[in-house]
Design a protein that fits this description.
444 residues, alpha/beta, six-stranded mixed beta sheet, Aminopeptidase, 15 helices, Rossmann fold, single chain, seven-stranded mixed beta sheet
Length: 444
């Protein structure tokens, strides 16, 4: 066991992947202990002292030398799981968001550094966060540290974080120069708050409080069949929602995975299949495994043999695979989208840049092109006859188009009896999505 012996003869074990929690009241010496560790450990990094590059989007500052998927995974683990925050600059974030952004950047830099097992130090961990958010970030940090072999030392006055961090070592400081070090048999388990959660049947109206948390925001849900709300206890605060709806008439990957069972057969489609139209988890608890837990718990509650999903973030977040759905393939983006993105970039309006929203707002030619692309997407995916684009703000248009600019959605399928047939190879060529929602009126 690697140990660092401090001036007061406290021997701190810092094995790769070790999580050390330092507790004690204000003035007990927590900050001094972390500063001494910083001085004695080569390559140590202090989260609170981490500078953030000016003028860069948060995701760019975290994806220094990492893939986009890895960067988004780290951001989500640190409590920044909302796409709208990834493209913001550091100075546009709240104080709590800045703490989480610094934590994400520190983790990324430490894992990319010359010594990826050098210790990461975080003083006053989670003290400016909502308690639920602090616990979720603590749980995710402990999980990430153990899986990546990153030793982490956090100092906090809040004992309630211990069952979430699940530390290997607990150091208690009393404030009179004394200390107590306990080595724990840390075992990674689900976050404790999961035991309190309750799934309740809901309706379309329940989605209103979650719409702003989803990247599509005002996009319609289509023809909804079942809605389930995740609450913090029976009748408690809503923390998640999943919406099951009637699916599009034709999907190429669906036809291939089911041997054409639903091709040109809308009656069978309505009777036997539903699509997961929305899955939204409160930002405070994202990254803790709540999403795939909610999907797994509700799949069997939907009384149909087949459930499918088109996930725009499927390439970087395997939530539906973890829930027991099978990844069938990637839907090919419509022809011409890459040319359109190239046209925008040549005119200084990169959809992935932090100023894209202002470009759409200020430049008529950019707004017109973006609006037409979003309008076409609405027609193809929801069958909407009215022009919702005409009433949408530049910000909503830019956010929607940014999602379209990424890779095609991943198609997932679940069958109640566990048999999918002969699925399309996950890494094979994409198949375009066609058709409109099958149901012509809401069942409710």
């Amino acid at each position: 066991m690697e140990q660092v012996v401090l001036a007061n003869q406290l021997a701190v074990p810092l094995n790769p992947g070790a999580v050390v929690m330092v507790c004690g009241p204000s003035g007990a010496g927590k900050t001094s202990l972390l500063r001494e560790l910083s001085d004695r450990c080569p390559g140590a990094r202090e989260v609170g002292r981490e500078s953030f590059p000016k003028g860069r989007a948060v995701v760019d500052a975290v994806a220094c030398r990492r893939s986009l998927g890895e960067a988004l995974s780290i951001l989500t683990a640190c409590g920044l799981g909302e796409p709208r925050l990834w493209v913001r600059r550091f100075d546009e974030l709240s104080e709590g968001e800045r703490f989480r952004a610094r934590l994400a950047r520190s983790i990324s830099l430490q894992l990319d550094g010359a010594n990826p097992t050098a210790v990461l130090l975080c003083d006053e961990f989670g003290t400016i966060l909502h308690r639920r958010a602090a616990r979720a970030v603590g749980y995710n940090l402990g999980k990430l540290a153990r899986r990546r072999g990153l030793p982490v030392v956090v100092a906090t006055p809040d004992d309630d974080l211990m069952p979430y961090l699940q530390p290997n070592v607990l150091i208690r400081l009393t404030g009179d120069g004394r200390h107590a070090l306990t080595v724990l048999s840390a075992r990674e388990g689900p976050p404790p708050f999961l035991r309190r959660f309750h799934i309740q049947e809901g309706g379309k109206r329940d989605y209103e409080s979650f719409a702003a948390m989803h990247y599509r925001r005002r996009d319609e849900l289509g023809f909804v069949d079942r809605v389930f709300v995740l609450r913090d206890g029976v009748g408690g605060e809503p923390l998640g929602i999943i919406v099951y709806a009637y699916g599009p008439i034709e999907l190429g990957l669906r036809n291939q995975a089911t041997a054409g069972r639903f091709r040109r057969n809308p009656e069978r489609l309505n009777r036997e299949l539903r699509i997961i139209r929305r899955l939204v988890i409160h930002p405070d608890i994202r990254g803790c495994g709540v999403g795939h837990w909610l999907v797994r718990k509700t799949l069997a509650k939907v009384d149909v043999p087949f459930v499918e999903c088109l996930a725009a973030m499927g390439a970087v977040n395997p939530v539906f695979e973890k829930a027991g759905m099978q990844r069938i393939g990637v839907c090919r983006p419509p022809p011409g989208r890459e040319q359109l993105i190239g046209w925008l970039r040549r005119r200084g309006a990169d959809p992935m840049s932090s100023d894209f929203e202002s470009q759409v707002a200020r430049r008529r030619e950019v707004r017109d092109v973006v609006a037409e692309a979003v309008r076409g997407w609405y027609r193809a995916t929801t069958g909407a006859r009215r022009d919702r684009v005409a009433t949408q703000s530049s910000r909503v248009l830019a956010q929607t188009f940014r999602q379209l600019a990424g890779s095609g959605p991943v198609y997932y399928l679940w069958r109640r009896d566990g048999s999918i047939g002969q699925p399309h190879a996950p890494d094979g060529p994409g198949i375009p999505v066609t058709g409109y929602p099958c149901r012509q009126e809401s069942p409710s």
